[in-house]
């Protein structure tokens, strides 16, 4: 059996010819010791039969490492900020980056699909994976562990794996500091427009908001709290609902800059002056925060450093170095601009 003329043989062709799964074929080609000698021999025979040329040969280590950066929302300013740091770190380390869209949910959550996806990365010469806010990553991470592939996640979403290696920010403290800022300006009815409840970062920010209210003796009002996906449209929709309610907030704390930009848009559409009649605070300090009208007060995250550290951690794991802690958390700070002001008397 050979591949069709003009078509390069793939790992799937090798697996089919050897009568094994793609994951097993990948393990055999990468010298894994959990593959029997008979299976390895069949896979190697299939490589010859179909004319497959592996991207890498484990018997001849490469001078350069290759990392796959995987994300779901490549157009997000947050993702672009993290990716910029990842690219810089890879360049400094003379490593290559492959960018990949996250596999669909069935692939991410089913063991067989996850193993095949990881096998494809292995066949492409990938040495480690960095996931950027990758949702439900647990099955992929287990498949990567089986294949000996280090996996680092920046701001994981909807995970039960407490041992996964992750990079993030002090989300709780950042949200608490921002809410304290609004309270210090005299605001008592402070709305919250947050991210999805499955996101660790979104939950931590919500808890920071609660902590600031509690410290000030303020009781959270469930009518002022909304949680949804991190999008401008959701910020606009929820802010419109809050601002047209019978008892609207005088300030809104948004759990990321996109939600905050949407909140600004809703206020402008309703003729509500910011910050004279409404204060708005965001989270992330992406470049767009300085371009809004007025410029956005927001919690500053070191997005590029998150990307840098994720890549450096993944490369260290490739060399057999275990991280000192599975969770690396960077400090946040508050950037005060023109979207927040004293509560109206």
Automatic annotation (TrEMBL):
Which InterPro entries does the UniProt record give?
HTH_LacI, LacI/GalR-like_sensor, Lambda_DNA-bd_dom_sf, Peripla_BP_I
Name the Pfam families on file.
LacI, Peripla_BP_3
- Indicate whether Transcription regulation appears among the record's keywords: yes
Question: What residues does the HTH lacI-type domain cover?
Answer: 9-54
Q: What is this protein called?
A: LacI family transcriptional regulator
Has keyword Nucleotidyltransferase? no
Q: What does the UniProt keyword field contain?
A: DNA-binding, Transcription, Transcription regulation
Q: Which GO terms describe its molecular function?
A: DNA-binding transcription factor activity; transcription cis-regulatory region binding
Please name the CDD domains in this protein's record: HTH_LacI (cd01392)
């Amino acid at each position: 059996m050979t591949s069709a003329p003009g078509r390069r043989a793939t790992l799937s062709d090798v697996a089919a010819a050897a009568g094994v799964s793609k994951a097993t074929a990948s393990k055999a080609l990468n010298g894994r010791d959990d593959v029997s000698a008979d299976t390895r021999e069949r896979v190697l025979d299939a490589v010859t039969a179909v004319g497959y040329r592996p991207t890498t040969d484990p018997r001849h280590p490469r001078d350069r490492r290759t990392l796959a950066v995987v994300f779901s929302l490549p157009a997000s300013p947050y993702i672009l900020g993290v990716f910029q740091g990842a690219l810089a770190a890879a360049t400094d380390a003379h490593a290559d980056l492959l960018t990949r869209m996250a596999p669909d949910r069935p692939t991410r959550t089913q063991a067989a699909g996850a193993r095949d996806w990881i096998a494809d990365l292995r066949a492409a010469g990938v040495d480690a994976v960095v996931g950027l806010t990758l949702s439900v990553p647990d099955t992929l991470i287990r498949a990567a562990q089986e294949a000996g592939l280090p996996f680092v996640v920046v701001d994981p979403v909807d995970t039960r794996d407490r041992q996964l290696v992750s990079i993030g920010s002090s989300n709780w403290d950042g949200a608490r500091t921002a809410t304290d800022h609004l309270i210090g300006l005299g605001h008592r009815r402070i709305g919250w427009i947050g991210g999805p409840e499955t996101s660790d970062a979104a939950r931590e920010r919500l808890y920071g908001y609660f902590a600031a209210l509690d410290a000030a003796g303020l009781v959270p009002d469930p009518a002022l709290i909304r949680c949804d996906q991190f999008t401008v449209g959701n910020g606009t929709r929820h802010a419109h609902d809050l601002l047209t309610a019978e008892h609207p907030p005088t300030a809104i704390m948004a759990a990321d800059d996109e939600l905050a930009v949407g909140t600004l848009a809703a206020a402008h559409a309703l003729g509500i002056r910011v910050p004279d009649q409404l204060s708005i605070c965001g989270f992330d300090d992406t470049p767009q925060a300085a371009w809004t009208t007025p410029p956005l007060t927001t919690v500053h995250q070191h997005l590029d450093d998150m990307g840098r550290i994720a890549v450096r951690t993944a490369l260290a794991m490739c060399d057999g170095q275990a991280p000192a802690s599975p969770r690396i958390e960077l400090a946040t700070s508050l950037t005060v601009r023109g979207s927040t002001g004293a509560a109206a008397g």
